[in-house]
Amino acid sequence: MKEASDKNAETFEAGARAMKMALDAKTGDPSVYFADTADPLHAAFRAKAVVHSGPGGMPLMGAAAVSAFDGLLDKPRTGKTLAYIHVPFCETRCLYCMFYQNPYKEDAAHAYAQTLVKELRSQADRAAQKCGPIHAVYFGGGTPTVFSPEDLRFVLRTVRETLPLANDCEITIEGRIHNFDDARVEAALEGGANRFSLGIQTFNTEIRRSMLRVDDRDTMIRRLEAIGRYDEAALVVDLIYGFPGQTMDVWASDLETAASLRLDGVDCYQLNVFEKSPLAKRIALGKLPVAAGTAEKADMFARSVEFFTNENWRRLSNNHWGRTHRERNIYNELGKSSVDCLAFGCGAGGRLAGHSFMIDRDLKSYTARVEAGEKPVQFLMKPGPNWALLRDISAAMESGAICLGRIGEAYGLDLERIAAPVVDQWIEAGLLFRRGRHLIQTVAGQYWHVTLAQLLMKWVESRIQKPAAMPDIDMGAPAAVMHAMRRQMAGAAAASSTRAAEMP
Q1: Residue 490: Cβ within 10 Å count
Q2: Residue 123: inside a domain, yes or no?
Q3: Which domain holds residue 408?
Q4: Fewer CB near the terminus (10 Å): N or C of the chain?
């Protein structure tokens, strides 16, 4: 842990490096995976994974990615399916944000809506897009609510025309209070949206302003109350714990404020400080205090669990709570699993037949490729041999409970026996307990669940096969993917017309 006087922040990358070093040392020794039994909530492991866990694979770039993806488009989907639509514009950039975006301009956003519609229509007759129901559509960003009411209505109508939506499809519009006015709310509802996910992050005006968020506490409360009065869509807000200056009292106030409003659900996420973020730079220069460390964030997480449990909210996943049954959390739940996810828009990420892919992140290049009738895939990751198994493990750990026996039966493996050396120690350490055939995460286990998922996947794979010789890339780890993509693209640029792009 960093001392309070240290002006450097605990970063995502530092934690990732520490964990990789530990695992690379002795993957066959179960003691490497063991947790500290003295203080499991605050210090179970030397590093905490914070980004959704997932198996790696073999990356393809440029023309190879396009060719491979084109073949996937002709294969009918099976099982549950999601769709993700990316809107890469923000009016302001929050200090902590590392997601891809472009500065908002009204004419650029309007032109983008037209291009997005063309992309949706261009592959509408291909098997992978037209067959089988889609159970959830998520508009993310960026800030989807920067679209004008007319453009928002136009894009939503096109989604319903070009995608085979299930009759109970969850359609989420992500956005900000600042620009989600009545006209946009009404356009979204007319277009079929039935879930609004709004990034509040904190109700504390001072902290919001320090992160370059626009609206103050009173403005946000008034606007949430106004949106809630429509009573036609699930209303969910995101809260973040761990901001510089965010004491436990401030966090408790955020939770209480959220519970006092007409909300259907709340998502609680921890702050991630990335090394190259504006936030990390300001902390290093002493312009902001150090963000909360792992132990402090553990206490904030535990407080959120205690608070919503006492308020009798339903636990939907380790980070999500629902107050009403209108909040189903379909996209967030299935997104961690192995289901297909179609993707549209500049910088969108998706998954098809186990292949993770990314759409061209350069706005000019993306537009030109769509206009040329091309599906503008930039990057594709072919699944490894145990991809589906590892995804199932990851998704179960995200939910807070896992039945290794049931998962193993589906793959002809005795997973309970395979995992026993590490699972038994985690039980001893107070991270898990048994309930029938299930392993249930304690509050400490919930806080460390991504770390547990990554360690369990690593252990299981090391015991069932000799690790494949492939690049160490994880689609769930932005920094690792970014590094790999930059390295590969640098080599490919001189030999092909591959368009260079960064990946978060």
Answers
A1: 10
A2: no
A3: 12-54+386-464
A4: N
Q: Which whole number is the average pLDDT over 46-57?
A: 72
Do β-strands 134-141 and 165-175 pair in parallel, antiparallel, or remain unpaired?
parallel
Examine the pLDDT at 306 and tell me if it is beyond 90. Answer: yes
The phi and psi torsions of 205 (rounded to 5 degrees) equal: -60, -45
Q: Are strands 438-441 and 401-402 parallel, antiparallel or unpaired?
A: antiparallel
- Token duo for residue 364: 């000019």
Residue 472 tokens read as: 């160490």
H/E stretch holding 197 reads strand 195-201
Phi, psi of 255 (to 5 degrees): -65, -45
Contact 188, 198 (CB under 8 A): no
Phi, psi torsion values for 294, nearest 5 degrees: -55, -45
Q: What pLDDT, on the 0 to 100 scale, is given for residue 436?
A: 97
pLDDT at 424: 98
Helix axes 248-260, 294-310, angle to 10 degrees: 30
Q: From the centroid of its chain, how far is CA 490?
A: 27
Q: Quick check: is 371 in a domain?
A: no
| CATH number of the domain encompassing residue 415 | 1.10.10
271 in a domain, yes or no? yes
Q: Which pLDDT band, with edges at 50, 70 and 90, does 51 fall under?
A: low
Domain count, the chain: 2
Give yes or no: residues 390 and 277 share one domain.
no
Q: Specify the range with the lowest mean pLDDT, choosing from 54-68, 160-174, 187-201, 451-465.
A: 54-68
Reduced to 3 states (helix: H, G, I; strand: E, B; else coil), residue 333 is: helix
Q: What share of the chain is helix, strand, coil (3-state, %, to 5)?
A: 45, 20, 35
- Predicted confidence at residue 482, as pLDDT, reads 38
